[in-house]
Amino acid sequence: MAAFQELLRARSGRQVWRFTPAVRRDLRNGLLFVSPWLIGLLVFTVYPIVSSFYYSFTVYDIVSPAQFVGLTNYRDLLTHDPLFWITVRNTLFLVCVFIPASLLLALSLALLLNAKISGMAFYRTVFFLPSIVPDVVVAVLWAWMLNTQFGLANASLRRFGLPTIGWMTDPMWTKPSLILIALWTVGGAMVIFLAAVQDIPEHLYEAADLDGASTWRKLWHVTLPMLTPTIFFNLVLGIIGTFQAFTLSFVLTGGSGGPLSSALFYAMLLYRNAFSYFKMGYASAMAWLLFAVIFAITFLVFRTAQYWVYYEGESG
Amino acid sequence: MKRSNLSRREFLRAGALVTGAAALAACAPAGAPAAPSAAGGGEVAAPVAEVIHLNVLAENWGEIYNNLMTVIGDEYTKVNPNVIVDWNFDPDWQTKLTTLIAAGTPPDCNHIRPGALAVLGRKGALLDLTDRVQAAGHTRDDFLISIYDSSTYDGKLYALPGGADYICIFYSKDAMRDAGLDPEKPPMTTAELIDQSKTILTQNASGEIERIGYMPRPGHQQNWSFIHGGGYYDEVNQKITANNPVNVEVYDWLHEYVKLLDVNKLAAFSERPGTYEAGNPFSTKQAAFFFDGFWTFEALDQHAPDIDYGVAFWPTPNGTADERKNYAISGWMYSVPKDSPHLDQAWDFINFAFIDKAALMGYKTLNGPCVKAALAEWEVGLREQMGADNRIANYLNVFAETGAAATNFFPTIPVGGYYSDELNRVYDLVMRDEMTSQAALDEVTANVQAELDKAMAA
Which residue of B has its CA nearest to A264? Predict the structure, then answer.
C-alpha cells in the first residue's frame, strides 16, 4: 500500500512517472506476480478476440492463409444465406419467450421456497437439482420424455383423452418444447433470487404490516422493488446465455435443427460454418454480429436500469 | 538473526531459470528415444534401433471399437518392433486435425472423410499417395471403386480407403409372415418395396403408425437417385447437378410415399434416440425393412435375439444384378499429412493396416474392408468371430457383393458437407409440401454452386 501511495504521489507530482528505485522494483515485482493471469488474458482472450475480428473480413479455412475480402462475409450473411434469417427468428423467439418465462418461474419458485414450512431444505434441493445436470444429459432425458409416440408426456395426454403433441417432430412445437426443457433447469437463477429474497430487511415488511398492506401489496411494493437488482442481474445473464443457445437443440435434433429448421439456432449455424464447412472467416463474422446484438441489447438494458432498478442505500 | 544469503535478484534469476528449463522440457518431442547408456566398466552398449512412435489421429468409435482398432497397431508393432503406434481417438477429429495441421504439428496419419479430404487435399496439406500405391503394386481396380474414387481429389489419391459402409436391406421375416407376405421373397425392385410396405403398414385409429415397411430417412434420397441413374456432380465441368431430372423424380417418388404415411406421423414414429439401442424399430418389431450395414447384427443380437430376419440387396428399378453397379457407398479413409514427422513409416503403417491386413482390420473392428481381394477372407473371419449360427452369417456375401459392385459416391468436393446439409434441408421442405422437388433442387444447385465457385476461387 505504501508503494502504491508513493506511486500516486509520483504521478500527481510535477514530474510524472519519475519513480524511485523502490517504486520501480515494487511495480516490477507486482507485474511479475500478476503476469500468469496477464499473459493468459492476452494470449487466450484478447488475441483470439482481436484475430476473430480480423478473420471476419477474410476467407479463412485454418490450413491456408486468410484472404482479405472486406465486408463480403457480412453481406453474404445478410443477403444470401437462406438459413441466416431463419436462425435469427428462431433465436429471437427463444430470447423473447424463454427469458421472461424463466425469470417469472425462478422468482415464483424462490418466493415459494422462502416460506417457513418444515422440510424446506428438501424442497429447495429438489428444485435446484436439475440445474446441475449437464445439458447433454438433460437433452437425452427429455428426448425420451417428449418422444411423440412413445414418450411419457404424450402418454399422459392420451390418458386424459387429450390430443397428443409432436413435441420435437412438429415444427410448430419444437421451440416451445425446448423452452419447456430449459425451464426445468432454472434452479441457478432461483437460488440467486432466493438469496436476494432472504436479504430483504424484515423491518420493511413490519412497516408494511403496520400500514395494513396486503400480501399482494407487500409483494408489489416491497419485495419486487428490493429484488430489482437481482432481476437485472438475471436478465443480463439470461440475454447473454439465450442468444448463444446451442447444446439442447443440437443434441435433441442431432445437429439438424429439427423439422423445417425450426430448432436451428444462430450458434448452431455458426458452429456448422466453422467446424463442418471450414468457413472460419464467415463464422467469425457471425460471431461478431452476435456480439454486436448482445452488446446493444445489454447496453440498452443497462441504460434503462436507472428507471427501474432500485439499489438500497442509494439516494433518490 | 542471520538473513538468507539468497538475494531477491538471485531468487528471481533462479526462478526464471527453473521455469525456462521446465518450458523447454515440455516442448521436447514426446517419446524421444533415451540416449544409450554406458554399461558398467565404461563399456558402450550396442546401438539400439531408434524407437518411433507413430501418432495416429482416429475417430472415436467408443471404447470397445477403439480397443479393437488398437489390435491393428499391435499387429504392426509385432512386424516392426521399433515402431509403436500411439492412437489418439477423438470424436471431433476433423477440428483437431485442421488445428494440428495449422499449428504445424500434424499427426503422422489420420482418419479422414471425403469433405475434409477435398479441403485439405486441395490446400496441399495431405500427401499425394498415388505414386506410393502404384509402387506397391496396387491399382484402382484392386479397391472398392466408390471408396477409391471418393478418396481422390483432382486426380490425386489423398487417402488410402479404410472402411466401407455397405448398406443393404434387413427384412423381418416375422413381419412379412404377419402381413401375409412370403418371408423368403424380400423386395428386389423399388416397386416391390413400396407394394410390400403398403401391405405391411398398420396404423391405429388416430393414424399413428404401429408397423411400417420401408421407413425413409434423410440421406436415403441420394442412394435412390444413384440407383435410378441420377447423380449430384459433373466433375469435368465442376458443376453441381442436384436438379438432375432423375433426382427430381426420386424426390417426387419419395414424396408420394411419405404422403401416404403422413409426414408428421412418420416423424413421430421414426424419431427415437439411439438407432442401435433398444428403441430401434426393427428390434421392437415395428419396422419390417431396415437399411443398414452388417455391424447392426450386434445390436440385433442384443436387443432382438428372437427376430427371424434376412438380408437382401438394396432394391433397384428392375432388381437385376447389373444394376448394382449404380450403388453408392461411402466410407472412411486414412491420410498422411504432408508435414507428418514420419512420412514413410506412416505410409507403411496404413498400407499394412488397410491393404495387407484389410480383412483382419475389417472383421476385428466390424468394418467393411475396401480391398476386393480381402472380402472373402473378411467373410470367413467375421463368420468365425460371430459364430456360424448367427442369423446374419449366411448373408455376409450380400454386403461384400454390394461393396464390390458399387461405383457411385457422393462427390468429394470442398463443399461436400454443405451440399449434404442442403439436400437434407430441402428434402424436409419437399416432404412437408413446402416446396416442389424441382424448385427445391434448383435452389440447392444454385446455393451449392455458388459456394463451390467461391471455394475454388479461394
Answer: B425
Q: Does A277 touch chain B (CB under 8 A)?
A: yes
- Answer left, alpha or beta for residue A278, where phi above 0 means left and psi between -120 and 50 means alpha: left
Examine the domain organization and report whether B309 and B453 are in the same domain: yes
pLDDT tens-digit readout, A195-209: 999 999 999 999 999
Domain region containing B365: 52-165+331-394
- Residue B108 is part of a domain; what is its CATH number? 3.40.190.10
- The single-letter DSSP state of residue B32 is P
Tell me whether residue B317 is in a domain: yes
B424 interfaces chain A, CB cutoff of 8 Å: yes
Superfamily, domain A74-308: MetI-like (1.10.3720.10)
Q: How many domains does chain B have?
A: 2
Cβ of A314: how many Cβ atoms within 10 Å? 7
Q: What is the pLDDT of residues A225-241, one digit of tens each?
A: 999 999 999 999 999 99
**Residues B96 and B137 occupy one common structural domain:** yes
Q: Are residues B301 and B318 in the same domain?
A: yes
The amino acid occupying position B147 is I
CA proximity to B124, closest of B397, B425, B337, B420: B337
Q: Are residues B150 and B191 in the same domain?
A: no
Contact across the interface for A64 and B123, Cβ inside 8 Å: yes
At A112, the amino acid letter reads L
pLDDT at B43 over 50: no
Question: pLDDT at residue A306 above 70?
Answer: yes
Which residues have CB under 8 Å from B143's CB, separation 6+?
B161, B370, B371, B372
The verdict on B321 and B336 lying in the same domain is no
Is pLDDT at B37 greater than 80 in this prediction? Answer: no
Question: Which residues in chain A have their CB less than 8 angstroms from residue B95's CB?
Answer: 275
Determine contact: A74 vs chain B, CB below 8 A: no
Considering the domain architecture, whether residues B61 and B130 belong to the same structural domain is answered as: yes
For residue B124, give how far its alpha carbon lies from the nearest alpha carbon of chain A (Å). Answer: 9
* Most A-contacting residue of B271, B275, B413 (CB-CB within 10 A), to test interface: B271
Neighbours of A151 (CB within 10 A): 22
Sequence-distant (6+) residues with CB within 8 A of A151 are: A144, A145, A167
